[in-house]
Amino acid sequence: MSAEIIYGSELAQKMRDEMKEEVTALKEKNIVPGLVVILIGEDPASMSYVKGKQKASDYVGVDSELITLPEKTTQEELLELIDQLNNKSSVNGILVQLPLPDHIYEQAIIEAISPEKDVDGFHPVNIGRMMTGKDTFYPCTPYGIIKILQSKSIEIEGKHAVIIGRSNIVGKPVGQLLLNENATVTYCHSRTKDMRSYIKNADILIVAVGREHFITGEDIKEGAIVIDVGVNRTSEGTLTGDVEFDSAKEIASYITPVPKGVGPMTITMLLHNTIKSAKKANNLL
Q1: Which of 14, 31, 135, 155 is geometrically suited to a Cys-Cys bond with 26, CB 3.0 to 4.6 A?
Q2: Same-domain pairing of 89 and 189
Q3: For residue 88, which phi and psi values (nearest 5 degrees)?
Q4: List 63, 118, 120, 228, catalytic entry
Q5: Is 167 annotated as a binding residue?
Q6: Is there a single domain that holds both residue 145 and residue 254?
Q7: Where is the Tetrahydrofolate dehydrogenase/cyclohydrolase NAD(P)-binding domain (predicted)?
Q8: Residue 199 burial (C-beta neighbours within 10 Å; 0-12, 13-18, 19+)
């Protein structure tokens, strides 16, 4: 048995095509969803990611503005800019590209963004809404993972979902979203004892540790659904995931590849949240 490969890139394109139509209809009502991305410094990975966001925004018709600031920008200057954008009606989404320089306290910046414009889904108010099962802006990568599972009509309710990794960006929120869908959720992390025994019992396995081929086919349960969030660069310079794809696909029932798996869905869900924010601001939701 070989797994069905779920290409997030194909789902992302389908959703972006639908969003393009939705934005066209909004523009006929003089509503233009606006996203501002703030980039501090010149981190190559961040710059590449931001370019991807701009290209996707252009495609669906979201008005995307990139504000680049020098590495030496102070926390006070950044907070002042966010305050201005919070009060600007043409801006529906504000995203500060992480990581930030060491002299800026990340949490202070996240909390300064208005929850109504927090299209990254990281503000404590939106995290709280997610935790209590309320409608909100969900963090983009976890939300994309749920959409990937739903796109294949994969039953989540009652399944044992095992999350490897407990970051605030992926691990913790994806576990909460799966719990909201009535899965039974186990978190594994660097301090977990006998981690492989949990992995072997996972119906749905989500791996987000940033370690090349941390999981192999031997580790997983026959027929498991494997979602690989990791992006690692090999010594040859190619991209690969946290899961050793070739061995895992012989055991799993569904698997996402790296690249073209979860990654494209992250930007797609960011656009989804920005459009949703514009609709909310205009009392269309």
Answers
A1: 31
A2: no
A3: -100, 115
A4: 120
A5: yes
A6: yes
A7: 139-281
A8: buried
CA 4 to each of CA 84, 88, 233, 239: distance values in angstroms, whole numbers, following the listed order: 47, 46, 24, 20
166 is in an annotated binding site: yes
Determine whether 97 is exposed, middle or buried from the number of CB atoms within 10 Å of its CB (0-12, 13-18, 19+).
buried
284, with CB counted inside 10 A (0-12, 13-18, 19+), is exposed
Query: Could you read off the pLDDT of 186-238 as tens digits, one per residue?
Result: 999 999 999 999 999 999 999 999 999 999 999 999 999 999 999 999 999 89
Q: Which domain holds residue 36?
A: 31-114
Phi, psi of 169 (to 5 degrees): -85, -35
Q: Is 53 a catalytic residue?
A: yes
Residue 150 annotated to the active site: no
Q: Which of 63, 97, 203, 242 is catalytic?
A: 97
Q: What is the pLDDT of residues 78-90, one digit of tens each?
A: 999 999 999 999 9
Does 165 carry a binding-site annotation?
yes
pLDDT in tens, 34-64: 999 999 998 888 888 899 999 999 999 999 9
Q: What is the pLDDT of residues 115-162, one digit of tens each?
A: 999 999 999 999 999 999 999 999 999 999 999 999 999 999 999 999
The one-character DSSP state at 117 is G
